[in-house]
Design brief:
heterodimer; A: mainly alpha; Fumarate Reductase Cytochrome B subunit; two-stranded antiparallel ribbon; B: alpha+beta; Uridine Diphospho-n-acetylenolpyruvylglucosamine Reductase, domain 2; five-stranded antiparallel beta sheet; four-stranded antiparallel beta sheet; 12 helices
Chain lengths: ~350, ~325
């Protein structure tokens, strides 16, 4: 398998001109092999779900539907996804033998992607918690525990996740790096084609042939990396056991049961809902989160500082939002939890 | 920079006697196979080491690909028929003179004696950056040297470009488009028949190929329907010198004129784009009109309205416009 394509430039120098298309097939193979292996593992080999020893917390005042992705985030995600899919199809389908006039569609989709990413960077930096997607020590511990559990060490207990589990964060960072590299190199490459923005002028920046070759190679590598990443992303998005996360990217919400099952209330704090330690509840009383009414009943008497500090809603006044009709909320997250994780929108209505 | 050497690098030579055998060989060697017709375009590539096939399939002994046959619906020309045979064939001279006019102006008598009609259609572009072995888009590279502001691009395209601005050099192509010819292609998936104007690849679709032929496929026959037999034809080739040169631009038209009115027509040019262009917009302007200088000029203006000249080829705009006007004038103005 070759990695690069080379050619002699007009001065007889051997220069890079792009990646070998073998790499595209390698990315396809790797992506499909991973998804197949994961599907087999999930169907027949996966150990039973672990119990979180530290996850004895429960939450009072949780609404039935919890906003996970605000409308602006969902619009961003789907516009970016459409642009990304168009870019991948226009980049690789012609190489695979499906031929059509792809260049104009490709650079227009590239500009759409650039605009969405620019919006996301600004939005995430100034209106959201920039660090919410950052990998911290707790994520690494959770990731190691998850991996140990997946490898069959049944004694391993997997901590519940923050709003964004470590695998989501790792995918985000992989896609972000690959996407940004593809965008920057792609903008350079637009100098070499006629666009609505101007005529081709390959000599505008006075870049040598060998440097141009590096630009094309880096663009190609980021492209095939995105190809592999998107294959796995789509696979997880359509898996039945992950469908509730995918639906949250469509409708915005996850159910209360999914929240309690998968997320650590101390690391993803829902405003108006108060984390409680189970051991604080007298034996025999049962869970205080049996329903909205129960939650409401217990919310007033719960300990709002169970997570180690004041919750964003203040102590003890967490009135649950009316079931099935979450109110208020926009796309901006609010408040810091005691553990440093951002709180999320609760009961947002988009 | 390419250097012409004395010896052609070695390759495996096959001389099949049937089209099926030839196709089987081409399928076996795929991208590494090369079809040898008259050899007028092949030897340059090989001697300059820019194209290095491992197997050459010489079609000289495939009898079924030679010759011109009259059919119930027109005429069929075998792919290996020489340009001289085309230019001098009585039936073609009598009823399809736009093609004989085109064939008789291709290159030199020696080349026409050896070169084939299919070779003239399939031949690669003459862009010297590409021919020189530079790693341009068409050669699988990542730039177009000919479209740069400092490039020498007098002979290059003004229409239909997409990264590559090289032009198709075929003189016979516009004549065959004007005659509404169809090309028969055989390959591993059997036979397919395409219209002449669809035979040529747009660089926006595949920048590395001049035609839709894929590895393992063979152009076997050109079918000219009788639809335009005996029509009013016009063919003109503009070159830098009066003979033995590649065209700057060619125009070919076939018109049905009744009562002084253009009932129907087909018109095509080459040398304006990376592929021969059928001028459908100009045809719409002319259809139903009485041929005149004014309507010819309007048809020419319509044809060049999307043109984007390069630094050194803006002369092609008035050239193309006036060739179309002259084609209308040739119809009897």
């Amino acid at each position: 398998m070759e990695l690069w394509r080379r050619a002699a430039n007009p001065w007889g120098q051997e220069v890079l001109i792009g990646i070998s298309w073998d790499l595209m097939w390698a990315a396809v193979f790797a992506g499909l092999a991973f998804t197949l292996a994961h599907a087999v593992w999930a169907k027949w080999l996966a150990p039973a779900a672990s119990t979180d020893a530290s996850g004895g917390s429960s939450v009072a005042g949780l609404p039935a539907q919890i906003l996970r992705h605000a409308l602006s985030e969902r619009v961003f995600h789907w516009v970016m996804s459409a642009a990304m899919l168009v870019l991948l199809v226009t980049a690789f389908a012609p190489v695979m033998g499906i031929q059509f006039p792809w260049v104009t569609i490709h650079w227009i989709a590239g500009l759409v992607l650039t605009a969405t990413i620019a919006y996301h960077i600004v939005h995430a930096t100034f209106w959201q918690d920039f660090w919410a997607m950052w990998v911290n020590g707790a994520d690494i511990k959770a990731g190691v525990a998850e991996l140990s559990h997946m490898l069959g060490r049944n004694g391993t207990e997997v901590p519940k996740a923050a709003k964004y589990p470590i695998d989501h964060k790792m995918f985000h960072h992989g896609a972000a790096v690959s996407g940004l590299v593809a965008i920057v190199t792609g903008i350079f490459m637009m100098l070499r084609i006629d666009t609505w923005l101007g005529a081709a002028n390959p000599y505008l920046l006075n870049i040598s042939d060998s440097s141009w070759g590096v630009v094309y190679v880096v663009h190609g590598i980021s492209g095939v990396a995105l190809f592999g990443l998107i294959i796995t992303h789509i696979y997880f998005a359509i898996r039945p056991d992950k469908w509730w996360i995918t639906k949250s990217m469509i409708y915005g919400f996850i159910g209360r049961d999914k929240y309690e099952e998968n997320f650590d209330p101390a690391r993803w704090v829902i405003p108006g809902a108060e984390p409680q330690q189970e051991e604080l509840v007298p034996a025999g009383v049962g869970s205080p989160v049996g329903g909205v009414d129960d939650a409401a009943a217990s919310a007033g008497g719960g300990d709002p500082a169970a997570g180690g500090g004041d919750g964003p809603a203040g102590g003890g006044d967490a009135t649950p939002v009316v079931e099935d009709a979450p109110a208020g909320g926009d796309d901006e997250e609010s408040g810091e939890s005691s553990s440093g994780e951002r709180t999320s929108e609760a009961g947002g209505l988009d | 920079m390419a250097v012409i050497r004395d010896m052609i690098p070695a390759f495996e030579l096959f001389q099949p006697t049937s089209a099926d055998d030839a196709i089987e060989l081409l399928i076996r060697y795929g991208e590494d196979g090369w079809v040898l017709g008259g050899g007028m375009d092949s030897f340059d590539w090989w001697k300059e080491r820019i194209k290095r096939p491992t197997a050459v399939v010489d079609l000289v002994n495939v009898d079924e690909l030679h010759g011109i046959r009259t059919t119930a619906d027109g005429i069929e020309i075998g792919a290996m028929t020489t340009l001289t045979e085309v230019a001098t064939h009585p039936e073609l001279l009598a009823n399809y003179s736009v093609l004989t006019d085109a064939a008789s102006q291709i290159a030199t008598p020696q080349i026409r004696n050896r070169g084939t009609i299919a070779g003239n259609l399939i031949q690669d572009t003459r862009c010297w950056y590409y021919r020189g072995g530079w790693p341009c888009y068409r050669a699988g590279g990542n730039t177009c040297y000919a479209s740069a502001p400092t490039a020498m691009n007098r002979e290059h395209a003004i229409l239909g470009t997409s990264r590559c601005v090289a032009v198709s050099p075929s003189d016979s192509a516009p004549a065959l488009i004007a005659l509404d010819a169809q090309f028969v292609i055989k390959g591993s998936r059997g036979e397919r028949v395409v219209d002449a104007e669809d035979f040529f690849m747009r660089p926006s679709v595949d920048i590395e190929r001049m035609t839709i032929l894929k590895p393992g496929e063979l152009l076997t026959t050109i079918r000219i329907p009788s639809t335009w037999a005996g029509a009013t034809f016009y063919y003109e080739k503009i070159e830098d010198r009066k003979a033995w040169d590649f065209a700057l631009m060619t125009v070919a038209s076939a018109m049905r004129i009744n009562g002084g009115v253009i009932e129907d027509l087909r018109m095509a040019v080459n040398g304006a784009a990376p592929f021969p262009i059928r001028l459908e917009d100009s045809e719409r302007v002319l259809r139903g009109q009485t041929p005149s200088e004014e309507i010819g000029l309007r048809a020419g203006e319509v044809a060049i309205r999307d043109a984007q000249p390069l630094r050194h080829n803006d002369f092609k705009l008035p050239l193309m416009r006036n060739l179309i006007r002259r084609a209308v004038r040739g119809a009897g103005v």
